[in-house]
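Blackboard transcription, Thursday session:
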Amino acid sequence: PQANIAVVGLAVMGSNLARNLASREGNTVAVYNRTTAKTDDLIAAHPEAGFVKAATMQELADSLQRPRTAIIMVKAGRATDAVIDELVSVFEPGDIIVDGGNALFTDTIRREAAVRETGIHFVGCGISGGEEGALNGPSLMPGGTAESYETLGPILTGIAAVAEGEPCVTHVGTDGAGHFVKMVHNGIEYADMQLIAEAYDLIRRGTGKSPAEIADVFDEWNRGELESYLIEITAEVLRQVDAATGQPLVDVILDAAGAKGTGAWTVQTALDLGVPVSGIAEAVFARSLSSRLAQRAAASDLPGPAEAWQVDDADAFIEDVRKALFASKIVAYSQGFDEIVAAAEEHGWDIRKGEVARIWRAGCIIRARFLNDITDAYAADPDLPALILAPYFRDAMAETQEAWRRVVVAAAQAGIPSPAFSSSLAYYDGLRADRLPAALVQGQRDFFGAHTYRRVDREGTFHTQWSGDRTEVEAVDTH
Ligand code: NBP
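(Written on the board underneath:)
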């Protein structure tokens, strides 16, 4: 056998990953695709890669040194299950099957348990960075056993993106941990994109600046603490002029945002875990709202603010928006990491949060200077109760929160939707609140459902006899 690694599924992601693998010293890459013509096309187009062709799964297995290692890059869902079954039938105990697709982490947990029965390792590996990342260096989030990582780690390290000399890959945790972390990455990506979009909208409507002028603002921001891939590409999109109409492209793109579901997964999972990821949720819902075109058209004559809005000092307002964006972004990441912590507890994953931030610094969509600060925060204190409570982020909040409030007030008064800015601010104020009206909610729950409550001044669980004489009794806690 000549090959040390195989790629199964040669659409755009698989082809690029196979080429990336082949370009690294020491790798010989076997390639397989259900439709063999695609395998032939790839091999013909890239003779320099020295691919080993596998026309069947058996040929694939025969071409691989042990432990055999194959990375699956097929359409997530049933195709993945079909390919796993085929690989299991030709692989042997100790071999390694990696799923690099966008699998739901619960599917990965199920698949890992089933494949483990055969003695074969199954690794769900989150891969971020799209086509470009797959070819030139993605951020890689493998789960699975520590044993499988001994073989897989060096191979993945060779192809990963590099940030400040360090490859963006780590063994995230067992079974579905890698795909889970990839999912949260995508959720944070939704929030980051929505926050940037809100910032653009507020600046445009508040100052009257053109998209190209706002691109200059984003370029400026990209030289400071907001420096990130998403800010960078936002400026490029805003500067683009539509060839057909001569209008800014952003003005001719239909304002209905699509989604492929990973943001929704992040929120659904957070609901199950009881973790408030409100910034991420608002970003997902903002896309849903935008796409309800018929409803929006029917609602377009609902009343809004009576007076037109114009900010007095454009530069001061833009600086406020920058601060609001930074503060909201910190909230989104803090919430995302809370979800990771909760899932790690639930599933018994030993996830090192600083490592997660470290491997997101290059290769992936949310890569940003800011991730260095998150890495540093968790290095200084791995048990931070929340990311936002790290000294650096506390200071950032002190510097930004007043500007953030001004922006949210202005948006509300002007009738400009800023769901991610405002819900993040509400979260921030909820988190730091001395007392929350949750006390009243508990009272209401006790009234109609005898759900009981605890007291601030005594241990125990209590119930007020609402339908009787309204005296309080000590209750047996049924929860
Ligand atoms: P697609 O998601 O479009 O899948 C196409 C591949 O799946 C082809 O190789 C196809 O083989 C194969 N396939 C299908 Br469909 N059903 C199959 C079956 N029953 N048995 C065997 N093979 C089957 O490819 P992609 O866009 O390259 O994405 C691959 C994975 O990477 C997906 O899970 C995706 O979510 C994930 N991902 C994509 C991106 C991105 O930016 N596109 C980023 C990160 C992750 P055929 O040629 O014979 O039809």
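Lecturer's comment: Residues 314-347 form the longest helix (34 residues).
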